[in-house]
């Protein structure tokens, strides 16, 4: 994971990035008409509009994909913050407190079990 956050939140972050990038490209294309004027600026604005539209469509696809993944994600309660969170794959992070979560016993750490064993 790139940003050390939950996988679903990372997908949504990339969707937001493509949305803002597409809108920025379209605004820059429209600003070309204001700055340069003329027929060439309209062609440049049209090209920028197409690139912005493609970026917005990529964003829509990413949001749709994240939504479909979210419906099939495993719901569990975070052991740290005790809030319900969704988990994708074998390991993921809590959406709220960023604690590493796993359902795979081979990848789990047993530090808390060792501390409880010594107290009894």
UniProtKB/TrEMBL annotation:
Keywords: Cell membrane, Membrane, Transmembrane, Transmembrane helix. InterPro entries: UPF0295. The chain crosses the membrane at residues 12-37, 43-66. It comes from the Bacteria. It comes from Paenibacillus darwinianus. This is Zinc-ribbon containing domain-containing protein. Pfam families: DUF2614 (PF11023).
């Amino acid at each position: 994971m790139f940003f050390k956050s939950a996988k679903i939140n990372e997908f949504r972050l990339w969707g937001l990035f493509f949305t803002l990038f597409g809108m920025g490209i379209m605004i820059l294309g429209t600003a070309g008409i204001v700055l340069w004027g003329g027929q060439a600026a309209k062609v440049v604005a049209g090209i920028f509009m197409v690139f912005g539209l493609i970026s917005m469509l990529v964003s829509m696809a990413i949001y749709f994909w994240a939504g479909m993944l979210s419906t099939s994600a495993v719901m569990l309660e975070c052991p740290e913050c005790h809030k319900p969170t969704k988990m994708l794959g074998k390991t993921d992070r809590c959406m709220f407190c960023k604690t590493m979560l796993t359902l795979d016993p081979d990848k789990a750490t047993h530090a808390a079990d060792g501390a409880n064993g010594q107290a009894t």
